[in-house]
User: What shape does this take?
Amino acid sequence: MTLKKLLRSIKKEAKLLRRVVYHRLFINPKLEEDIVNQFTKLYFHSYIFDKVPRWLGVPAIKCPLDLWIYQEIIFEVRPDVIIECGTADGGSAYFLASMCDLVNNGRVITIDIKGGKDRPEHKRIRWLVGSSISGETVDQVKKLIRDTDNIMVILDSDHRKEHVLNELRIYSKLVTQGSYIIVEDTIVNGHPILPDFGPGPMEAVEEFLKGNSDFSIDKNRERFYLTFNPRGYLRREK
Ligand SMILES: C[S@@+](CC[C@H](N)C(=O)[O-])C[C@H]1O[C@@H](n2cnc3c(N)ncnc32)[C@H](O)[C@@H]1O
Assistant: This one.
């Protein structure tokens, strides 16, 4: 490394350090946590005022910052198949298919217990109707994937702990190394919203990870502070 390059790199590091120090002087970790929790509550509850984000006109019941993270994961992992449990209006499946268009790779299999008539049309999306944990649905999914496919999974259906844990146990087996199983809405049951929800996705993740070294929580995917999926971005390590 030349002296000029070394000096440039030291200057860059010093600038970064100065920013970190400023950040910590004005926003200590406790204040940071309070702000994030308060804003998560404000943002989540604003949904009742019809503030649901739309992707190309279709409601997607997601935090837009999480959708940005999805885009980053799709670009990095380049999944051949994205399995989504919980379709609703189809906005998130439509978003995922659009990202697949942009990277020119991938298909979306989306599952919902209810059928829907006004869901968007897209050649990359396969709509399945049935419970995500029924043997019949799982068989259908398995028939639609190949052994060589790079697979990513998103769990956004019934948010009760037992259901999510079942989904985790079933679908984690399909996730390929370096890819993700994303557990949506770990914020419920007081983390920090809906304190009376009862055990939900966060508790399912905790139990799933006990003694499981195949997956780890990727905290970097929470770096925009506001996320509906804290501790929910699970990366397959091996
Ligand atoms: C939170 S919404 C999905 C939102 C959608 N992913 C989006 O971002 O726009 C949850 C959906 O899960 C579906 N659901 C509930 N229980 C289910 C189950 N056992 N299997 C599959 N889907 C289920 C509901 O019908 C509902 O449409």
Summary: The helical segments are 3-26, 29-45, 64-77, 91-103, 135-144, 161-171, 201-209. Strands lie at 54-55, 58-59, 81-85, 107-112, 125-129, 151-155, 180-183, 215-217, 233-236.
